[in-house]
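Section 5.1 Outputs to date
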Amino acid sequence: MVRETKRTADGASASGVSSSRNERRLLMNYNTNNSDKARKILIILLLVITAAGIGYMIGTAANAEDHPATCWVMCRPGSQVNVRKRPDKKSEQVGYLEACDSFQTDGETKDGWVHVLNIGEYGAGWVYVGYVVTEEPKAVYQNYVCVAKKQAACRRWIGGPQTDKKWIRNGCDVSVFFIADGWACTSRGFIQAEWLEANPL
């Protein structure tokens, strides 16, 4: 049996209205999914650009005077950064560097790792770029306050993903251990130094 299509008050068919609503709903979901994907892609690109920028600075420092450059490790006091035989976190550990230790590099970088000269029995190794700075870290050991407009990201390493705590809000205190290359090594992770000011209290 053929059923007659019901009409709405404005003359449009009920089935047409339902179809239009479904289309709008699908479009909203599509835009939301695309927005999430775009945000993730942007974060990945920022991490890649940060690693590339640090690698470029290291390479430039090493080649400027045609001899190995000095870099430093910046991490929390009492912790250490592993030096690997190859530029891979699963590679054999050939040594380690503690907070503020310096090392010599020829400027070679690969897949987010920096080449370390004269370490361990192998004579060389690789350290992850997220803990490497090109200037000697300034020891602070002082409380700072967040001055970001709303909040500042707390990262696992320089330019890396956010820590479990993720954010520090404007006006909140944080213990700062070291500052170098525009980053602060804090009790809550790595935070861009421009968002922090020394607490006068």
